[in-house]
Write a structure and sequence with these properties.
Order of helices and strands: HHEHHEHHHEHHHHH
Largest sheet: 3 strands, mixed
Number of helices: 12
Shape: globular
Structural class: mainly alpha
Oligomer: single chain
Number of strands: 3
Length: about 325
Amino acid sequence: MNELTILNLPYLQMEYKLRTEKSNITAMKEFILLGFSDIPNFQWVLSGIFLVLYLTILMCNSVIVLITRIDPTLQTPMYFFLNHFSILEICYVTVTIPRMLTDLLSQKGRISFTACATQMCLVLLFGGLECLLLAVMAYDRYVAVCNPLHYGLIMSPRVCVQLVTASWVSGVPVVIGQTWQVFSLPFCGSTTINHFFCDLPPVFKLACGDTFVNEIAVYVVAVVFIMVPFLLIVVSYGKIISNILKLRSARGRAKAFSTCSSHLTVVVLFYGTASTTYLQPKPNQSEETGKLISLFYTVLIPTLNPIIYTLRNKDITVALRKLLRKLSI
């Protein structure tokens, strides 16, 4: 080895390292979703459970969509929003559960960059939309309880359509920008995502370099799409409860509470888990805990939502009985 080579050795080593890292980054075209591979003996059992839950979600929400559209007594703003909420739930679970079932059965878990980015984009979009739609539904209940004489004027069909359209459209550019920002980061080293779908926290852990600015952007968006709608819901229900307590009739108070109880239960369940995932600082949550919490708000809560709305809502129960009677004739 000549003197020139010895002098250039540190430079050559650094150049080789940079080339290796660059080749690792450019060659990385897919991720591996670990999912529930840590419990291999229960793959078929989990597949059966998740398949049953998925079919239950599809069936129950489809029934709600059907009866809220064909039953004349349910042609009100409250059930108009519930109709869209049920459609949203179907879209939300379809983004994650079929992919999870495929990975459980094949035990491969490979997902391309494009598919991973698309899944993350849709999960964020439908999750943000659910927050906005829950806030719109809370506003509807506020108008119904606190301003019943002008309810039909304030919540006109045109206003309802505008509110739903704004909820569907407003999050699209933000979510696309957020997804592009995450997947424009360099990824090197491990490509294994310890999760059952491409979610923000586990994907961030695979990024190289300083991701502080990107994480701050995620928190800002999370605050806007989670905390702002939540505060609107809290304000709405604060005024609703204050108004209900002023009613002299115990029957009137019970009826007013019953119209809000289903929605309030769904809000508590959804926000309790989603805020834990997206608003908690990164070091404070283990991967297994994050996976378990995500399982609650992506699978279990969507299963409970239609049950909550049907069991605690007399109008839907009556409409469902009428539909069953028609089908049995």
